[in-house]
Design brief:
about 475 residues, FAD/NAD(P)-binding domain, about 20% helix, alpha/beta, five-stranded parallel sheet, 10 helices, 4 domains
Length: about 475
Amino acid sequence: MKTDLIIIGGGPAGMAAALAAYEKGIRDLLILERDKELGGILNQCIHNGFGLHTFKEELTGPEYAVRYMDMVEERKIPSLLNTMVVDVQGGTPCVVTAMNREKGMFKIEAKAVVLAMGCRERSRGAMNIPGTRPAGVYSAGTAQRYVNIEGRMPGREVVVLGSGDIGLIMARRMTLQGAKVKLVAEIMPYSGGLKRNIVQCLDDFGIPLKLNHTVTQIHGKERVEGVTVSKVDEKLNPIPGTEEFVKCDTLLLSCGLIPENELSQGAGAQMDDTTAGPVVNAKLETTVKGIFACGNVLHVHDLVDNVSIEAEKAGEFAADYILNGEEDWGEAVRPKIPEKSKCTLPEGRDAGSQIICIGCPVGCLITVNKKEDGTLEITGNTCKKGEAYARNEVTAPVRAVTSLIRVKGGSGRVVPVKTAGEIPKGKIRQCLEEIGAVVANAPVKTGDVLIQNVAGTSVSVVATGNIPVGNIPAV
């Protein structure tokens, strides 16, 4: 089997690279994806916050993925799903070895390859947390898949270790699905998540964030029964005498992401110790001839929009390589990596008059003062959206709600949904109760209205994913 270009990974990076190469004139190309559908991790990220840069509107993860999936389908770019790549070799030609149920083990020759495999979560073993090995210890991403894709709850009393964005988002998701999140522990003196997520994932639900704390013991034999949380010193060592037992049945680990580079290393690509991804030149080509890299496999990105932008460049460079031939490799260029967020809400912040804006990832600290004539003086915002948000937050706070609705007769148990607009913050619980009472009949398509006038707000609840008619896949 031969083709011009192979893209390994059908997530946001892989699809963006494929589309860019197609626009540059490459028609003989193929996406290889190990999951049953394109979209990658976005399919289980049912929360808002995606697409502000790429599509100039706020989307959920499945909505963002569908935008790209539709463009791939419109251009008839082929893909092999449920296909695992086991080896990649560069050269003329590059050779990719893959396997699936239909073809068994097979090889594909290509003029170029784009690596877009994404990243994986750091495991408990990598963090050396002592204790037994009971059920109930999950990475945050695994728990996210159980809840948002399979419609299963990992537990009911939860401690989250790590306050990156996925940890904060899962603290909220578990709360919205009826669990009690006892606390989020963070070993650093700051959160690694966006300020907007501190507000809308923890503050909105009264979930405590303990900075300079970590889990030092897991208790339980068959199932997690609790954890010991300890304060740490400036060298991140637990401080004796600060131990606190927290009863729980579930521990979610959100302690960092690692680029998925077994294939890159197997191909012989030189690796960068700082990014944990392959070394690339200005055209995103690795040190192996004909193999390019982009997205989270190159380095962990802060926003999916940035993944798409970088992947488009990789697709264009791979197309140029195929159409115009090889050029001198040049010098290694390290991709620009945004400084890691170090979110600490300002000390002495007056929660009554100072507001963290959640309108975008910037998270401006906005001050609101009520003047003698009753009008509001708003300062600190860097855009009009911040001013509008602060005014509403003081007078009538609103939130968009994302959740799940059960599905009958479909290929999945649940479909992700969102309110078509923001609703009063005080109506969130009622909204979730009404969502929980609904069972939709398959098929369900993105944009379908499943509830009208939810919680008496005049706002509808719409599907943000697709569930075709079919059998529920085996777990």
